[in-house]
Specification:
mainly beta, Immunoglobulin-like, four-stranded antiparallel sheet, three-stranded antiparallel sheet
Length: about 110
C-alpha cells in the first residue's frame, strides 16, 4: 500500500497528543529571547514554566470546528501544543517578560549575573 506523505502526516498527527509550534531561540549579551509562532491565540491563553534550565510553554488552540467536515487538506495544527526550550544560561525567572502580538509569542528572559 502506497501512502502519500500528506496522508502519513495526517495519520501521525491524529495520534499525536501534542504538537510543537515553530520556535526561535537567540540571545544577546543580557537576555535570552524565545519567539514562538502560534497564530489564533489570545493573550493569557499560554502557560509558561521554568525549572532549572528548561522552559516549557504550553496551551491549546481550538480549531472552532464543531461540525462534520471532509477535509481536502489539513496543515494547520489545533489542540494541545507544547514547546520545550533548553536555556543555555541561568535566567532571572522573576523578571521574565512575555508578549503576544500578531501571532507571535515573544518571551524575554534576563540572564543572571
Amino acid at each position: 500500500m502506497l501512502v502519500r506523505s500528506s496522508q502519513l502526516f495526517r495519520l501521525f498527527r491524529a495520534h499525536s497528543p501534542t504538537w510543537r509550534p515553530p520556535t526561535d531561540v537567540y540571545e544577546t549579551e543580557h537576555e535570552m529571547i524565545v519567539q514562538i509562532e502560534i497564530a489564533g491565540m489570545r493573550d493569557g491563553h499560554f502557560h509558561l514554566s521554568i525549572q532549572d534550565r528548561l522552559m516549557v510553554v504550553y496551551g491549546s488552540r481550538d480549531d472552532n470546528t464543531h461540525e462534520r467536515r471532509a477535509y481536502h487538506q489539513l496543515e494547520i495544527h489545533s489542540g494541545d501544543f507544547r514547546a520545550e526550550v533548553e536555556l543555555s544560561s541561568p535566567v532571572d525567572t522573576a523578571s521574565v517578560i512575555a508578549d503576544y502580538d500578531d501571532g507571535f509569542l515573544r518571551i524575554i528572559l534576563p540572564k543572571l549575573g
